[in-house]
Design goal:
Elements (H helix, E strand, L loop, with lengths): L1 H9 L14 H7 L18 E7 L18 H9 L1 E3 L2 E2 L5 H10 L25 H7 L3 E7 L17 E5 L10 E2 L11 E2 L2 E2 L2 E2 L6 H15 L5 E6 L15 H7 L8 H25 L6 E7 L23 H4 L3 E4 L8 E3 L3 E2 L3 H9 L15 H4 L9 E3 L4 E4 L2 E4 L2 E4 L15 H10 L3
Parallel strand pairs: 1-10, 1-11, 2-13, 3-14, 4-5, 4-10
Antiparallel strand pairs: 2-12, 5-8, 6-7, 8-9, 11-12, 15-16, 16-17, 17-18
Helix pairs in contact: 6-8, 7-8
Amino acid sequence: MRVMKRISARLRDARLKAGFAKASLACALNCIALVTPSFANDESKGSRPNIIWIMADDLGYGDLGCHGCKDIPTPHIDNMAMKGVKCSNFYAAAPVCTPSRASILSGRYSEAIGMTAVLMGRGGMASEVVTIAEVLKNSGYATGLIGKWHLGYGGESLPNAQGFDEFYGHRGGKIDFFKHTDDSQKVVGNPMGKHDFYENNKEIFPEGYSTALYTRRAIQFVESHRQQPFFLFVSYDAPHYARKGVLQAPQSHVSKFTKNKDKPTMRELYASMVNCLDDGIGELIACIDKNGMEANTFVMFVSDNGADPKHGGSNTPLSGGKWTTKEGGIRVPMIAKWPSRIPAGSTSTEIFHMIDLFPTMLSVAGISKPQQLTLDGCDVMECLMGKSTIAERPLFFGKNTIRKGKWKVVDSKLHDLEKDPGENHDLSAEYPEVLKELKSLGER
């Protein structure tokens, strides 16, 4: 009975606390029905596509070759763009880790589920929040999270209680890439902090650079589940710093980018981390191709928020960065590849948000939305395929930052992002009615 109650609670929507009736386990499961996606063709009817999300940590808009970067080779990510769609107006839910990760998994604005701040060694996402992993798992998908979690440190907030069959990685927001410790999780007498590496709920002590460890485990997951549909979330912690002011990469990569062999610059270390990340992604994609799964696998690459220029990243041509709701903090790289559906080498200028990925993945998997589940985003699969456009809507980044169409307001400053993506010109005095409208939306 206790197990049934716990599972039932996990399948409720967070907003039921505001007055909606609570859903039982049976009702929630009955709501999960398979449907034929509107974009399916005769050859693929009945086929369950695999879904892989690849997330970088603090990667800047200007740090990929396909976005114009000249000093960091990213051939494998660029190849994804050549084989899929590059989204030039994709928004993270927040300019920091925890709220974005909560939003992408729940399909909700982070404010709606109480996840607005960065977790620092304690706290976690409520068990009532329903994740995309839970819905896919209940529909027969094998589910795995490899890498960074940062949505809770214990109990019902851990990955295995949030819909993931398998977890391999760290619970906190960052780790030393070689020693796998987190100085945000304090340990008396040890400035490096608590050791933070787990397989499911068991602490483990693998040796090696975390990016390489995650890649190897992701390949193992694909190999072991290639006979069934799977959802794999590969949540790399690169190129996030290990500790403030400390970036780490294997020497084999550092040596490729360091001009002064005795002291690499922050940008050179950052480039080493991104290049190593790109190599890992290339290995994972090669595994998909080798197993003949490319045509039936949706792969998405995204960053959780913008780069921190103080730690080597670049958000060019956008202004601002991590911790800010300027474009450089929240507009992030996003590439989607699905050869049987998404046109190769395409670019979408549609305005997307992380909250859209949950309903879009339901569409990809051919699953109807559970009736009592609230989602804040919309299905954008037809847009990714270039067959449709998305209706103009407001997108929110806290109370003081709203984007609608070409307009964006940040702390009472108004910008036309089509003409001024760098947010250099405040137009609030010229268009007071637009400013008033957008600010009123933020008071919802």
